[in-house]
Structure formats: C-alpha cells, structure tokens
Write a structure and sequence with these properties.
The protein is α/β, with parallel strands linked by helices. It is 45% helix and 16% strand. The chain has a single domain, classed as Rossmann fold. The protein contains nine helices and nine strands. Strands 3-2-1-4-5-6-9 form a seven-stranded parallel sheet, with helices on both faces. Strands 7-8 form a two-stranded parallel sheet. The two termini are 29 Å apart. The relative contact order is 0.14. Bound molecules: nicotinamide-adenine-dinucleotide. The site of nicotinamide-adenine-dinucleotide has 29 residues, from helix 1 and helix 4.
Amino acid sequence: MASASDRFAGKRAVVTGAGSGIGRATATRLAREGARVALIARGRERLEAIAAEIDPAAGAIVLPADCADEVSIAAAIDQAAAAFGGLDIVVSNAGIELLDEDDRVDRLELAVWQRLLRNNLDGQFLTCKHGIRHLLAAGGGAVVCVGSNTGYLGMATNEPAYSASKGGVFAMMRVMAIDYARENIRVNMVMPGFIDTPMNEPVMRDPNELRYWSDQIPIGRAGSADECAAAILWLASDEASYCVGTALVVDGGQAAI
Ligand SMILES: NC(=O)c1ccc[n+]([C@@H]2O[C@H](COP(=O)([O-])OP(=O)(O)OC[C@H]3O[C@@H](n4cnc5c(N)ncnc54)[C@H](O)[C@@H]3O)[C@@H](O)[C@H]2O)c1
C-alpha cells in the first residue's frame, strides 16, 4: 500500500497478536517505516514466518507469549525492551472472538464469558501494565489498544461477552489516557468494524453471510487489516501528538448510522 517512510526511525515497538490479521499488518508496516518491532503472539512458527517477510535490516524479533498470562507477557515485553534498549510504542491488539459459543445472555455459558474476558480484557490490561512500565522508564511513548465498535455501540448481536471485553478495553483506555497524560505517554485506541482477517474467515467465505454483513456497512464492504494498521500507526506516531484518549472508529461508516 503506502510507500516506505522513516516515520518510526529509532522507535522501539511491541505488537501483540502479530501472528495474524491486524497485528500482522501493523507489525509489518511499523518495521517498513523504520521501527524495531517485537512480534508477540502465541505461536512461534507463525511469527517466524511473518518476521521472515520483514526486511532483516529492520531487526524485528519474535517473542511467543500468552497475553492473558502475566508471567508470559511480562517476560516477552521485558525481553523486547532488553533487546531494543527500551520501548516507545505498545500496540495492544491480541484478541479472540468465539462466534459459535458467545450467545444471547440467557444462553451464554459462564465459562465462555470468562474465557473472552480473560483473553481480551485481562490480556490487554497485562500488556498495558508491563508495556507502560517501559514507557515510563523511557520518559514517554504511545499506547494504542485495539478494541471494537461493538465495545460501545452494540454492533455484534449475540456476542455480549466479546462486546463486554471490548467495552472494558474502551473504559480502561480512557482512564489510562488521563493517568499518564502528564508523563508524556499518549494512550489511544482503534475501534475496527467488520474487517477481513482470519478472525472473520467463516463469514468471509460464506457469500450469504458476507452480503448480509456488508449490506449493513455504509461503504458496502469489509475493511482490510491494512486499513486498520494505518490508523494504528497514525495514533502511534508523532503526528497524533494532541490525541489522548481518542477512540478512532475504522468501520466504513457503521458508527455513523
Ligand atoms: N476482524 C474484525 O472484524 C475485528 C473487528 C473489531 C475488532 N477486532 C479486534 O482486532 C484485534 C485483531 O483481530 P484480527 O481480526 O486481526 O484477528 P486474528 O484472529 O486474525 O488475529 C488475532 C491475533 O491475536 C493473537 N492472540 C489472541 N489472543 C492472544 C493471547 N491471549 N496471547 C497472545 N496472542 C493472542 C492470535 O494468536 C492472533 O495472532 C482483536 O483484538 C480483535 O478483537 C477485529
């Protein structure tokens, strides 16, 4: 898409959920624009394949970890900071959706609710907790959380647990934004809508489902991982220097309905 630039030259970043979709696009673009990037997700093999696509000169590193496990994510973030000599950017993106198990609350199993909250909300809390410690040590930086438009607009019907997990990220992001604003750390978020990533693979390959969801979007189509990554990079960049606590909706107009 965009040509390479040096917008992030000298910046040191961690991206969670870098093994796929939006995280992968974000890590790749950050590296292309000059950042040293630590790719974090659960599977080493996927991460290594993605790192291999990045120019070796960019110095990307692979750190398999589970964001919802404090020992695991703290170790990965600390290793990234040790390898790069500090951190400037934390992209807290990892998340799951459980399309077949999340359900109207009268039918929703507590275990499914807890799994989504643990993975998506605990995971982002722990990523921010350990990432921000390094930003404080560096004297500032940027955090970009990835939520969802269903975290504040109720877009994903029959997915109350996923939506609650993203609503939690939205609330946490706004308070973090205020808590760290005077310490030169900008905290913001991107709220994607319906994006063509492996998370939505069952919908993308079913023409009827795809038409049903696309028809509800003013722009008439799913977004791409790269379109979300562009918004994440902008919020992480110095160009967004006056954005604090912003939730940037990237949803083809759904939120405007
Ligand atoms: N695709 C969409 O339509 C959409 C819409 C709104 C929000 N989002 C959000 O965007 C983010 C990225 O989603 P995507 O569409 O790229 O999905 P994806 O499934 O393609 O990628 C998600 C990545 O996160 C990783 N991950 C999940 N939980 C993890 C954990 N506990 N520890 C480490 N890694 C973990 C997965 O391994 C994978 O690499 C998620 O937070 C998702 O909720 C996606």
